[in-house]
């Protein structure tokens, strides 16, 4: 640490045999060793420790693989004495296996300052969905994260190796990156060590971080006359300054076949429906008819789930325009919402529109329709879905439409499957529909009214 302190990660066992995580630190001014005052990571093993420094000072991050099938990430004060709960934006992003079950292996991790931005680099093995005749080999992957966004740089181990535990080393002023990993040699449990120079991957990391920084800067200055290296206003991404703190995903004008690509290089949305029912427009898509919609996945991503944070907190923002009034007698047509991965594919909450020109907030147990927003055809609105660990709230043009507590027990066994946008292929009762959706933003936090007002003021009409 900056004051010369040394901090080591440790693993211990409770009386009942449960693994816990803690740390031991040596502070030169005190001239003694001190154990952390709290333990965390029940059921976790093989911790790694990295130092993180930003505008707010120094922190320590601890990462370990856990019995639940994923890697937990914790944070502490700079001295390592007091440990806090999960570092929620990135905890449980990485799984231990394709099905996210059982223990894994020790991950590699380090931090670096790339282009003036603090980032964390992580290595862990990724396993194929299907087993081969000789079992499942892990291919070591490298990720970069700024504590919110997560980008998979790709595989870094040799193709035929069965990679296990790994360690990352950054040298020469953040200009040389290497990985050392264990390669399982056979069924006898023996290993050899493999070292790889990650020069090419480091260059890609620099490109990704620059992309994040440039887009942040451009969105923050949108409409002010200075858009930096990305002309966000000219591209129709915004018409005023956009808050970028905690912004992790942005769907706008980038497409590839049946994908609506994330501007921040994260999770892409899948576009469903025949070509005649969906049409690209600047910064979004027009959907016409049942079966045409976009699916932005949270779960069902396999081993790595970059948007795992959404299971406890998020804000989803979209600009929409409804072009046709639904036929008389038709039911509410889904516009945007959140589905769970339970057997019923429960809609946790969302927005639908009706023949009576009402925008209705819906939940897993729909209530009355007293709270609604009246819409007009071909008029642009900004809709917001916000969730905390207790309640969900729906806004239209920064005005709150409805706020309700949801059934938290639903998350005891299940997680969010996806966000549906522009329609919902799971809702077989919905017919018709003709909407345009543009500039969809995902935050890993619950935005307050001042940020929602800024977003609404900067929407493109």
From TrEMBL:
Q: Which residues form the Trans-sialidase C-terminal domain?
A: 243-448
Family matches, as CDD domains: Sialidase_non-viral
Which GO molecular function annotation, any one, does this entry have?
exo-alpha-sialidase activity
Question: What InterPro entries does this protein's entry cite?
Answer: ConA-like_dom_sf, Sialidase, Sialidase_sf, Sialidase_trypan, TS_C
Where does the Sialidase domain start and stop, copy by copy?
Answer: 1-182
Matching Pfam families: BNR_3, TS_C
Name the record gives this protein: Trans-sialidase, putative
Taxon lineage: Eukaryota, Discoba, Euglenozoa, Kinetoplastea, Metakinetoplastina
